[in-house]
Design brief:
CATH architecture of chain A: Orthogonal Bundle
Number of strands of chain B: 0
Chains: A mainly alpha, B mainly alpha, C alpha/beta
Distance between the termini of chain B: 14 Å
Helix content of chain B: over 70%
CATH architecture of chain B: Orthogonal Bundle
Largest interface: A-B, 41 and 49 residues
Order of helices and strands of chain B: HHHHHHHHHHHHHH
Number of helices of chain B: 14
CATH superfamily of chain B: MetI-like
CATH superfamily of chain A: MetI-like
Strand content of chain A: under 5%
Largest sheet of chain B: none
Number of helices of chain A: 10
CATH class of chain B: Mainly Alpha
Strand content of chain B: under 5%
CATH topology of chain A: MetI-like fold
Oligomer: heterotrimer
Distance between the termini of chain A: 16 Å
CATH topology of chain B: MetI-like fold
Amino acid sequence: MMRIPTSALIGLILTSAFFLMALFAPWLAPYGVGEVVGDVWEPASWEFLFGTDGIGRDLLSRMIYGGRTTIFVASAATILSFTLGTTLALSAVVIGGWTDMLLSRFIDLIMSIPTLIFALVVLSVVPVTLPVLILVMGLLDTTRVYRLARAVAADVNVMDYVEAARLRGEGTRWIVFREILPNVLSPLVAELGMRFIFMVLFVSTLSFLGLGIQPPDADWGGIVKDNKEGLVYGVPAALLPAVAIASLAISVNLVADWVLSRTTSLKGGR
Amino acid sequence: MSPIVLKLVSQRIALGLMLLLAASALIFAGTQILPGDVAQSILGQSATPEALENLRRDLGLNEPALTRYFNWLSDALRGDLGTALTNGKDIADSMSGRLQNTLFLAASAAAVSVPLAIFLGLLAVQFRNRWPDKLISAVTLATISVPEFILGYVIMYVVAVKLRWLPSVSILRPGMDFGDKLEAIAMPVIVLTFVVLAHMMRMTRAAILNVMESAYIETAELKGLSAFQTIFRHAMPNAISPIVNVVMLNMAYLVVGVVVVEVVFVYPGMGQYLVDHVAKRDVPVVQASGLVFASVYIVLNTLADIIAILANPRLRHPK
Amino acid sequence: MSEYLLKVKDLKIGAHVMPPNEKPFDIEIVHGVSFDLEKGKVLGLIGESGAGKSTIGLSALAYGRGSVSITGGEVHVNGRDILTGDKTLLRSLRGHEVTYVSQSAAASFNPSKKILEQVIESCIRHKLCSDSEAKSRAIALFDQLGLPDPATFGDRYPHQVSGGQLQRAMTAMALCPKPDLVIFDEPTTALDVTTQIDVLAAIKRAIHQTGVAALYITHDLAVVAQVSDHIMVLQQGKTVEYGTVDQIINTPKEAYTQALVAVRSIEHEEKQPTATPVLLVEGISARYPRVKSDVLSDVSVELHPGQTLAVVGESGSGKSTLARVITGLLPPRSGKVIFDGRELSSALAERSGEDLRELQMIYQMADTAMNPRQTIANIIGRPLELYFGLKGAEKDKRINELLEEIEMGQEFRNRYPAELSGGQKQRVCIARALAAKPKLIICDEVTSALDPLVADGILKLLLDLQKIEGVSYLFITHDLATVRAIADSIAVMHQGKVVRYGSKSKVLAPPFDDYTDLLLSSVPEMKIGWLENVIAHRKMESAGN
């Protein structure tokens, strides 16, 4: 019954590979994350598969550890924004009335300021630590999850079968968990992928601007920042994260596309 | 203009103004969420309590937050954005030149990307589900999968380092003539174009397809009109408003993309000004530039909505 | 030159289906259909959904909608083969020799252009006449089609006129270039019955006066009988029967045609009122939030056990609002609902479980009335669990009984709603309502989304179930044929008020009030010449007044 198309399969394999790499980084990386092991900007060799960075650290190890940090922060922020955004949105739709209106207007207000600008404003006063970063990113992105989840749930909420459940005398819990949630889950899972990618891009951008992960910890955005001077001398070390981020993003996208198309096929006719 | 349109437009403008006000409050509140204050950031952790107290009094920090917010806002409305903590310079003065540079960069990027996006959007519609459409959507998918700054370095590496066509940084000096200026900003413009092109092209494609699938396009075809007449007489009048809307939304997006791209190319604009001072924790500068960015963003979004109202035939010609 | 205007030979039409996540494939939807049409004649194409009638109609314009394309056969218009792919030929054909009137004029007019501009566009683009002549033609057509203020009607935008008027404007648009052939694709289906008769009469008059030939596509045999010379009956892309109107209506040969002609001829003996009604609606007035006028004003009706009360009215009459008030979804401003001897709370939240159980509802769109993520067994089983606490084998047994009652087998237990046909879906909804062992079921337009034969099956099932279970129905519908088939008593609603109320025999017998008369006389009958009689009758009456 479950036929997985090739593109989704590639996406699934690559995505799991990235997550496994993040989990087992200390066992996979040949050197320590902050260890200076060679000369500055050594080219790729058997000893250093990707070469070394601007102060002689092994780039492969930096990339693996950097992936671990990036993926961890992005996942944590996505989970936060998703749980909060979906809960708020479903409550708003089911409760309706003033709760719904006030919440939605407040979300509109936060969204009227560009996310990056708002993040910069807040990060100018708070100390930049991992929990703070996750919290700021997760809370700001809650607005987008809320908007989508509210729109999808509102569509389902006006369906006759939800009305039928109300007329039958079902409680709020049944209506939310049995009638609405199963029907909003698939588009939300597809969106989960999109949000995760956005979080990877977001944390990389912040680190690149020097306002994300702080040295000596590595992350993909930081690796670009550390090695950008090398570009002028023709050392492409700073472009490694581009490959990593793009392949992670595309593989997650492939999985998300598949989840979404499965939903539409279920909704369609016979 | 009919009374309904007038009412809706003025409502939207009022909403825009309210959003501006609320956004300023949010930006102010965003810098107040921690107990640490500006005096502490100026003097550092080792400052004596007396020195802190004196500075707080000078800066008016002992007032309640609400009073300080209204003082800040009324000053800002009069064009007084305060002074920077780091160098004591007037913020409005430092900003004016940078704002010009940023607007110059953004406008140039818009001038390139808008026609290009609409052209590619039309092309994708014309060759829907055939290879040109698929190629365009694959390339755009790739560009939105990579953060702006990395895209910037990739392009810099290829164009400036390997091909040596353009300088790798964009420096504007006073007295440069227009041609030199254009050459200086060529690379950031290319990157910004890539950044907004994907979204703008996809949304344009969707907007045109939406119109092309309407029953009235079928009616036009069944009247024996040529493809050109169908598009020109029936699709365009209805597609213009969604396309303009798409363009406006992406201009808003461009304004944010500018921040990162300026840092990549060391371009002396608002974005770099903001990022520098976030790192230095210069709160007044951050507040002021945050307010400027948010205002531009809100104004563009409001414009997009107003255009959508003005272009709606049901509202323009009420019953 | 051929003597025929339109000659279709062995026409085959295919569609390219692209299901998500599966390989695209081609299917054939029309399997070799042939017919001819002489100048000035009208051919009716009739069939249920999926019969391919619209697709065949559009082939006269050499046009395939979306992924549909003509795969074989020949179509000749005025002696020329139009399927050769010659673009100049097509351009001179479309909008000049052959024109098209669609079901939804509202979507087929460009919202940002004035009506007149669109009506005369074909004339101008094909350089058939001067601008001023085209305008005077259009105004003459507006007049002919009975549109108000013909001289200025065209200066309005499509959204500024009513649906019936727009449908007539689209007919004017089709007739303006003086075509040889007009394709009418269900032009009155989306209209209320009292509007339909006017549009139908206008179309018929225009066809007659201009001498144009037409293909008239519809699912309603009674409608097509009024305008056609010949009728072709289609089923699943094949011709079932072809003949003159008289022959098809009065002496149909094929079983399928006989079934179509016999549709809605269910007979139902009217029952006498009992001592105590199961439902008593007293003086209900209601309005929606933020609306300043009443949708229902002072509505009072009663329904007796084991009987059916039909609530009839056109769109906007308030009949569905009445259902919302009775179910508690819309608390009324005044009045009360007495159910089985006890007064129901006006709000849903305050009603007891027993109140909810005994009052069930079936919806118009069975598609959206069932959770697409639940199996049929879950959907039917839930009320058993909730109201009677049934579990396991006991529940399964009851589910099987219910499936049997709706004439569906146990093999449906583990299917999802999307795997069922329209009629099967509605049957499952009936089973879900029955599972609660209700005293009253509110049926809201339960047959109007279904094809006539399928709808007949549902009505028969409902009548049978009423005999077995003794349940009462409050039957909301716009279709008077359905009312005749199923009702014991009738309430006719118009603009939020009950304008006529009583037993079926009383309500459907003269003397009538004006609105009921209009409503009853507007329902197309399967008789040749019905339309002329009604129009002539109405003219006489208005002349008499």
